[in-house]
Amino acid sequence: MVLTIDTSALVAIERAIEQARDFSYPGEARLVLPVIVWAEALIGVRLADSALRASRRRARLEVFRQRASLQPFTAEIAEHYADLFAELSTAGQKVPQNDLAVAATARFLKTPLLVGPNDEAHFRKVPQLEVMTLAI
Known about the structure:
Order of helices and strands: EHEHHEHHEE
Structural class: alpha/beta
CATH architecture: 3-Layer(aba) Sandwich
């Protein structure tokens, strides 16, 4: 199984590793990391309250990144993004732009989207997107 991962799941995994807590996602899933999710994770590194914390956070994220497939935002994914934006806007549904890019990536790749343990309800507004919640 292949899963596209949202920032909420990546942050939850990073925190679980930091606190030595267990977490799980389905089986032997291969994870796809959209570049926008990687960028959002790096913001957390840049905004860390100390150089030591930034360094540790970056190290944990790098281990994760090396195990996941980094997915660029391609022209084909941009087409899905534009379609989703138009469809949701017409229906009066709003999804944050970065999350819409993540949803478009998952839909283009035809993978479920893994979100953090607190869920991300706005993803459930996206038609034909399977959303799975990380268990921690």
